[in-house]
Write a structure and sequence with these properties.
Strands 1, 3, 4, 6, 9 and 12 form a six-stranded antiparallel sheet that branches. Strands 2-5-11-7-8-10 form a six-stranded antiparallel sheet, with no helix packed on it. The longest helix is centred in the C-terminal third of the chain and has 19 residues, at 946-964. It is 26% helix and 20% strand. It is α/β, with parallel strands linked by helices. Keywords: Calcium, Glycosidase, Hydrolase, Repeat, Signal.
Length: 1002
């Protein structure tokens, strides 16, 4: 993101007194950014200035502002910000190179307009690697403790390597400065403010200590008692040149660890010398021998103090850790319950609070905090990925964090979590399966389980043992931005597809969790998140997400709670409460789910018998009433066991300790929470194998996994209209393809793909719908906007729909609606006026197409298929039959919303369960055939022959669809939809009776 690759060399050095050299022999400063218009605003990976943030409103607003008081030139870079998670801006230099060489200078400086906020502002630089996205991050900060313009000087010697940023282990962990790819400014969180910046430049002569740096192979060296640790000490130089002067490293085992010299280890001291001329990258080893004392004990630390002369010292001294040994909780032969009880009895209050704390990986600018605060968990929020975003980098990242946990007394491993919600969707190149709404359309529990197996295998192969999935919401209003995270609007459909829990976890007793292809699952969002009332949200500009669910207790039980009963029976390991509030009409008014002890403890844990642990949603406790202490107290006492507090982990654990000491949170409640967390860690086998098992890494994005996803895509395609049997297409036909979603892997994958909100474009490897059609069919022409001539074609295929969004950012009324875009409407109109046409709607929810339904010959709900667009082509060209059924009601207009199966008044465009078929024989006959099917269905129901019962209902449904196609009415739609619900609950005879009523009305 740079104006041009030659910016530094193309600008004249500044020679004014204000920007003069700090010493007589220093070189003149060199301008990096003058902000006079030479640097464009851009979007990554384009070169220029770009903004970023944790959510949609976190990126700051930037402008080049004319200022009379500009310290340099006439303009400054100015902006405003209001950041809840994280946010800032980057100037990334030309990715194509050449990189900039900053090695001749002492540091970087710039003018900053202070507002005396007292906040610290981080400044980071990108060093080394192939390009800006594969470089190391080095960081420092300065305080906004002044008012007005001030020139900030940041010597390169002040920059520290960001171990939480990848590539893990670094390219070389040396601030070489010869290949610089840009800089970034991270703005303060939790305050609304403005800033201005000007005159970024390099100053001074290079500090000699920067030409050589000393590093160690790791910060922590675990070793079994009685064995020796070999600590590697490596010298590196800028540009990998040999040392110009000697470097010495004095070492000694310090006495400020927990191990006792002479009892637990043999003290060592000495000096390692790297003479002048030593090659960069040379490593010497220091051996630290531990002693066996035959007694069982916790882990003990042996700090190794390094004193470096002639080079930059490591950011922190390494520690040798004598592994915990001989304690009962370490004996994998013991039952998990006994191991948990033993370990729990040894933990201090602070250690217990640490286990209840989950931080974001991006907050780990000081990775030593993992051990210092005894953190129980880390997570990657949406888009929080290593660089490069590869499976290997993920595994190295997780391992580096796990290594830090080994420096704690009892070496309790972290449990690392991600939102792997439709495949390991965080990782570029992973298999991205259809979102849940598409799986709901398949009506195929076994296939849903197999897609989850793909997700579990690919996720665990990167070292991540926990996914925040599946979402068991029952989506009752398509205006909700999370509709696609739901399997459908019917709790019976959601329950039928909870086979995904077994796909993720394996057997219900948790005995498969230690396998290298299984992960801990999370049932979310407990409870009622799919039933929030439109207009009830108070979160930013959201309209329905995180709003209020207004139901009776009976409705809550029947619709929203029922999927959780099944999830608990299936052994789901964790549950995440909803951001939303619940109003049961009992006089309490809306109460946030994170505060509802009656449901989290009373219903979920006590009545349902849930024995896993409850994890909060991202910063969700901040939405509870009261001060922070009240928020912590309320949520923990309500039944929250682990708190997702991404950037406030210190505040949470400290506050919890204070609340416990004051008696406002009981020791019994804390012990219950920690026992639940430790139980899952033991079940996952993390104490025996905390590090990534990457043997299956080659399966990530493999042909076999993509084949499963492709099958799910094909089964999810829902044929709503097929006049004259237009579909399937024939390979001999000349096909005209148009539409915004025909050739966009990002659009067809939707939100939660690589980043939180997802994005349009070529964001990850896969097959677009267009590419699938090209591979499967015959002659084809593509014109996205239908601007190419439309004469001479047999059939048109127009692929339209939504662009990616996630959560409340996708709420209708928050910049979104259910209408096709003007461009999509124009493409449909032009193509369908010129030839017979099929319209495919790629979206996370139904789109309003009623005004164009008459001109469309075939209509397909393609949902969000993910990376395997070939599955769409499979059904369009008849390699597989259309079998998908609507998981949600398709409305005629927005005025009908919410509209759901079972409503007293029900007159949709297409009813719940609707889905025409191809390559399938529809039964002959009418009411006589239906009568025979009803009798057989009642018999199947009596004998528990579920497979036979479902087939009989399907036969009746096909017969009704043939009769009703093209003239659906409320008298047809209502019993038709009811029949699908009845079939999912095993009432096959009643389902056929409803279908018979629909047939008669047709």
């Amino acid at each position: 993101m740079l104006a041009c690759a030659t910016l530094l060399t193309g600008l004249l050095p500044l020679t004014t007194a204000a920007a003069g050299a700090s010493a007589a022999d220093d070189p003149a400063p060199v301008a990096v950014d003058r902000f006079e218009g030479e640097v464009p605003f851009a979007s990554p990976p384009a070169e220029g200035l770009s903004t970023w943030g944790g959510d949609a409103d976190d990126p700051p607003a930037l402008e080049l502002a004319a200022r009379a008081d500009a310290p340099e030139g006439a303009k400054v870079l100015a902006g405003t910000y209001d950041i809840s998670g994280y946010g800032g801006f980057t100037h990334q230099f030309a990715n194509a190179g050449p990189a900039h060489d900053w090695s001749a200078h002492r540091g970087v400086r710039f003018w900053w307009e202070g507002h005396d906020s007292g906040k610290r502002i981080a400044y980071e630089i990108k060093d080394g690697g192939a390009n800006g996205d594969a470089s190391e991050l080095w960081t420092t900060s300065f305080a906004d403790d002044f008012t007005g313009w001030k020139q900030i000087e940041l010597p390169f010697s002040d920059f520290a390597y960001r171990t939480d940023y990848q590539p893990v282990g670094g390219i070389d962990q040396l601030l070489g400065l010869t290949e610089m790819w840009g800089y970034a400014v991270t703005l303060p969180v939790g305050v609304k403010g403005e800033f201005a910046m000007d005159g970024v430049e390099l100053y001074g002569r290079a500090d000699q200590s920067l030409r050589a740096s000393v590093s160690t192979g790791a910060a922590v060296y675990p070793v079994p008692e009685g064995r020796s640790a070999s600590v590697g000490i490596t010298v590196g130089t800028t540009g990998s040149a040999p040392l110009e002067e000697p470097v010495t490293v004095a070492y000694e085992t310090a006495g400020d660890g927990t191990a006792a010299a002479g009892e637990d280890f043999a003290p060592v001291s000495g000096t390692v010398t790297f003479p002048a001329g030593t090659a960069s990258g040379t490593t010497r080893a220091v051996r630290v021998a531990t002693l066996r004392d035959r007694s069982a004990e916790p882990a003990e630390t042996i700090p190794l103090k390094l004193t470096v002369t002639g080079a930059k010292a490591p950011a922190e001294n390494p520690s040798v850790v004598v592994d915990a040994h001989g304690l009962p909780y370490l004996d994998e032969r013991l039952p998990v319950k006994k191991r948990v009880a033993d370990l729990l009895s040894r933990l201090s209050l602070a250690e217990k609070a640490g286990q209840m704390t989950q931080a974001e990986r991006g907050a780990m600018t000081a990775p030593g905090d993992i051990a210092t605060h005894g953190l129980g968990s880390l997570l990657s929020g949406g888009g929080s990925t290593p660089t490069p975003n590869t499976p290997a980098a993920w595994a190295r990242m997780v391992d580096s964090f796990q290594l830090r946990a080994q420096a704690t007394r009892f070496q309790i491993p972290l449990v690392y979590g991600v939102d792997a919600v439709h495949g390991h969707n965080n990782v570029t190149g992973a298999t991205v399966t259809p979102h849940n709404i598409g799986l709901g359309a398949t009506r195929d529990p076994d296939l849903a389980r197999r897609t989850a197996e793909v997700t579990a295998g690919e996720t665990r192969a990167t070292g991540v043992p926990w996914t925040f999935a599946p979402c068991l919401c029952v989506a009752r209003d398509e205006r909700w931005g999370r509709t696609y995270e739901s399997f459908g609007e019917d709790p019976a459909l959601v329950e039928s597809l909870e086979t995904v829990i077994q796909g993720l976890q394996g057997r219900a007793d948790g005995s498969d969790l230690d396998r290298s292809d299984k992960v801990l699952a999370t049932a979310k969002h407990f409870v009622g998140d799919g039933g929030t009332t439109f207009g009830s949200s108070t979160t930013g500009s959201y309209t329905i997400d995180q709003g209020v669910t207004e139901v009776t207790r009976r409705e809550l039980e029947a619709v929203h709670l029922s999927p959780y009963r099944d999830a608990v029976d299936r052994g789901v390991g964790t549950v995440m409460p909803s951001y939303s509030s619940l109003d049961l009409g009992d006089g309490q008014g809306p109460v946030k789910m994170h505060a509802r002890a009656d449901l989290l403890t009373g219903v979920l844990k006590d009545r349902m018998g849930f024995d896993g642990f409850v994890i909060s949603d991202w910063n969700a406790i901040d939405q509870l009433p009261g001060d922070y202490a009240a928020q912590v107290r309320t949520s923990v006492n309500a039944g929250l066991d682990m708190m997702m507090v991404p950037y406030t982990y210190k505040e949470f654990s400290g506050t919890l300790i204070e609340e416990a000491r004051a008696g406002r949170v009981t020791e019994r409640r804390i012990d219950d929470a920690v026992s639940r967390i430790l139980t899952q860690k033991f079940r996952l086998g993390l104490f025996e194998q905390p590090y990534a098992d990457t043997r299956a890494a080659s399966t990530i994005g493999s042909a076999a996994h993509r084949a499963v996803a492709r099958e799910a895509v094909a089964e999810s395609q829902t044929l709503l209209k097929n006049t004259g049997g237009l579909l399937p297409l024939k390979k001999s036909q000349r096909v005209y393809v148009a539409g915004s979603n025909a050739d966009d892997i990002g659009n067809q994958s939707g939100g939660w793909t690589v980043t939180w909100q997802g994005s349009s474009g070529d964001i990850t490897p896969g097959t677009t719908v267009l590419e699938g059609l090209r591979e499967a069919g015959g002659p084809l022409t593509f014109s996205e906007d239908a601007s190419a001539p439309t004469t001479g074609y047999d059939v048109g295929v127009v692929v339209v729909g939504e662009t990616p969004y996630a959560e409340g950012a996708g709420d209708v009324g928050n910049g979104n609606d259910l209408e096709l875009t003007a461009a999509d409407k124009a493409a449909v109109d032009k193509v369908c006026a010129a030839m017979r046409c099929a319209v495919l709607v790629v979206s996370g929810r139904p789109q309003l197409i009623g005004d164009r339904l008459g001109e469309i010959d075939a209509l397909v709900a393609s949902w969000l298929p993910g990376t395997e667009g070939g599955g769409v082509a499979d059904v369009l060209y008849g390699e597989r039959p259309f079998t998908g059924q609507l998981p949600v009601t398709w409305p005629k207009s927005q005025a009908q919303l919410p509209i759901n199966v079972g409503d007293p008044s029900y007159d949709p465009q297409f009813p719940y369960g609707w889905g025409l078929t191809t390559r399938t024989r529809v039964p002959a006959g009418g009411e006589r055939t239906l009568a025979a099917l009803a009798a057989a269905a009642r018999a199947a129901e009596r004998t528990g022959a579920d497979a036979a019962g479902r087939k009989l209902v399907t036969q009746a449904r096909l017969l009704v669809q043939r009769a009703a196609d093209g003239h659906l009415s409320e008298a047809v739609a209502k019993p038709f939809a009811d029949a699908d619900h009845l079939a999912l609950t095993g009432r096959y005879g009643a389902a056929v009776a409803k279908l018979t009523a629909a047939y008669k009305a047709a």
